[in-house]
Amino acid sequence: MFFCHSSFSLILILLLLSSSSSTLQIQTHRNHTLHNLHLSSYSQKNIMDRLKSSARLMIVSDLDHTMVDHHDPENTSILRFNALWEAHYRHDSLLVFSTGRSPTLYKQLRKEKPMITPDIAIMSVGTEITYGKLMEPDDGWVQVLNQKWDKDIVIEETSKFPELSRQAETEQRPHKVSFYVKKEKAEQVTEALNKVLKGRGLDVKIIYSGGIDLDILPQGAGKGQALAYLLKKFEAEGKRPVNTLVCGDSGNDAELFSIPGVHGVMVSNAQEELLQWYAANAKNNPKILHASERCAAGIIQAIGHFKLGTNISPRDVSDLTKDIENAHPAHEVVNFNLLLEKWRRAEVENTELFLAGLKAVSHPTGVFIHPSGTEHHIKDHLNILRKVYGDSQGKPLRIWVDDVSASQIGSDTWLLKFDKWELYGEERQGCVVTAVMSTKESNWFTWLHVHQTFLEQSGKQEWMF
User: Fold this and answer.
1) Where is the signal peptide (predicted)?
2) Which of 9, 375, 416, 464 is the most exposed place for a label (fewest CB within 10 A)?
């Protein structure tokens, strides 16, 4: 019987849970436990303590034109990566975003693109390190960067170079001063600046990338140095990642590939300056791959190329009801939401057998509570589910989950928490989901209770289910 597939049981239950005219909440007598579920990625301490042993894989990826493809309006590759990471890696691995963007522009990108939450963010070209959703700063890194650095002197000396055009104030950070400079002037200006600033007693690093951006940092800063600092920190805890994969497309990513022991992938759309660095420094290095795929698809390709783990995203699986190779609550959550997306886009068949399965795998005492406070039994929503089939057919609806935490709280009981997002064109809706799931059989997941609440930064749209 196909109802015994773990993915299918979860998918059926959660499709039903999500079938009302708005996001539903389930009330449970375990409220205290639910709301005290530990949140991975909320602080530096939690990041360091979340994994009981070394991370199976740590991915360190640039964002613009690496993880995020700005030429992909459907966000296909990053959504594939999101599903892969949350289903197979979040629970025992680490995700690090390493970007030249300031915190302001980083947060802006997160609002524009369907990005999941990293465990660690390296921002402002390696001059800022923060942890988790709250973006808690690493004070130790600040102390490292203060050595032989004086921002006022940098500003004073750069003002004497008419070739430099100062970037926006949001991009001027405590340990980074940023400009635009024409490509033909970059080398000359860099050499002159290095000489002047060294004469003033500073030890700086000047990075030119993207054919236009020039960043002046403390010598100890940079994406590579920030990664080296993190690896040393994990090593001190006895938790250095088993494998690290660095991913980039531009000149300011070159340092990442120079860290000893890491695997690296240059996405197929890598810029000229990174390709030149590769030709001069790493052409014969078997640990560095020039992918044939763009952006996040190239990262997925590299995971498989280096045999770092599965690189089959749930979004690449044609029949999610049979995708039971790795029965895990997080895997089930991802598969459910993908099938919900397909259900509403009419990309799966609407059959009575499917609907009957919903009732068969739902817990008889399961109760939904709508955000308005209205209570519903699971079985009462079958008719609503029928009504919403294909409501987004031919429309730009995409659904993904973020930051899935799964804790086993009994011999056959799991406590889950994750963020669920729906993107409809340019509109976005999100909710926090806390749920209890049981596993009565090895491949059978039954949903007992689900509690969903709208995220504060999320508008409440009628198309959210």
Assistant:
1) 1-23
2) 375
- When pLDDT is cut at 50, 70 and 90, the band that residue 8 belongs to is very low
pTM: 0.85
CATH of domain 57-137+223-305: 3.40.50.1000
pLDDT at 375 over 50: yes
Q: Domain coordinates of the chain in residue numbers? A: 2-40+318-454, 57-137+223-305, 148-218
Nearest to 296 by CA among 77, 95, 113, 57: 77
Q: What is the CATH number of domain 148-218?
A: 3.90.1070.10
- Residue 340 is predicted with a pLDDT of 86
Confidence of residue 458 (pLDDT cuts 50, 70, 90): low
Contact 332, 435 (CB under 8 A): no
Residue 378 has pLDDT above 50, yes or no: yes
Q: What integer is the mean pLDDT of 190-206?
A: 95
